[in-house]
Amino acid sequence: MHLTRTLLLVSATLLISDASGGIARSQEPDGPQTSAPAPAARPTQPVAARSASPPQPINVPAGTRFAVVLENGISTRGAKPGDSVYFRTSFPITQNNHIVIPVGSYLRGELLESKRPGRIKGRGEFRMKLNTLIFPNGYTVDLNADPRSADSGGKGTMDSEGKMTGPGGTGKDVGTVATTTATGAGIGAIAAGAKGAGIGAGAGGLVGLGAVLLTRGPEAELPRGSTLDVVLEHDLALDGSQIHYSNVGQASPITPPPSR
Fold first, then answer.
1. Domain 58-168+221-242 in CATH 3.40.50.720
2. Is 6 left (phi over 0), alpha (psi -120 to 50) or beta?
3. For range 57-69, the mean pLDDT
């Protein structure tokens, strides 16, 4: 009886040992581990975004000069107050070695006054103001500028307020009267000698004076392609975030106005 108990205890011990060994073997990896385990990933820290400084405003000071070319011709023959005038820049404006107003920017203005020349006295004249500046990228700003000088190919003059005045016609009028007087005198002399010459001269003079009274003086004109010098009357504030160009503009061929 005692022997039987002993055998049972030994058998139970062996069974427990085999079960423990099987569990341990099942937990071992299939092959030998050849590399160290990967380190645990460190928690990522949020990277603070760099705060980009906002673009600084750009100030173009009063007195800055623009070289511009006229896109549409102007003549007192048909111009009237309120008509639009169009220009484009032909030279860039720079600041701190950067182009702030490129070639090819557009300027729009309007006629403030327009007066035809008189039949006896008074010259043709018109005055204009530039109101809007449009950049190549579409950025648009209000402008307050006056043209100061113009190269029109003619004899007109421009003052500091943007008023264009046409040439006078006095010499032309005198020439008209003189020509008709001489023609009348010649016809009278042929018809009735010296007495007829005097009568013909008087008649010719009256005809010439009538022609002058019916004819206006030279119109004030700026043909398309005229170059002007435009001056800012007040500081021009620009948004720095808008002053970025993939193309800073390209000069276009300028066709000078015909000589008149």
1. no
2. alpha
3. 94
Reported in sequence order, the residue ranges of 74-175 that DSSP labels E, i.e. its strands, are: 74-75, 84-89, 93-95, 98-101, 106-115, 125-134, 140-151, 157-158, 163-165
User: Residue 74: helix, strand or coil by DSSP?
Assistant: strand
Nearest to 223 by CA among 130, 152, 126: 152
* Domain ranges, ordered by start, for the chain: 58-168+221-242, 170-216
Task: Name the pTM for this structure.
Answer: 0.59
Q: What separation, in Å, do the N-terminal and C-terminal C-alpha atoms of the chain show?
A: 147
- The pairing of strands 84-89 and 65-70 is antiparallel
Strands 125-134 and 163-165, by their bridges, are antiparallel
For 140, phi then psi, to 5°, come to -125, 135
Residue 89 token pair:
């820049």
180 pLDDT more than 50 = no
Categorise residue 122: left if φ over 0, alpha if ψ from -120 to 50, beta otherwise.
left
What is d(CA 138, CA 114) in angstroms, rounded to the nearest whole number?
31
Q: Is the pLDDT of residue 209 over 50?
A: no
For the segment 39-51, what is each residue's pLDDT rounded down to a tens digit? Answer: 666 655 554 445 5
In this structure, is the dihedral angle defined by the CA atoms of residues 138, 139, 140 and 145, taken in order, positive or negative? Answer: negative
The helices-and-strands tally (H runs, E runs) of the chain is 2, 14
Quick check: 145 and 66 in contact, CB under 8 A? yes
pLDDT tens readout for residues 227-256: 999 999 999 999 999 987 666 555 555 555
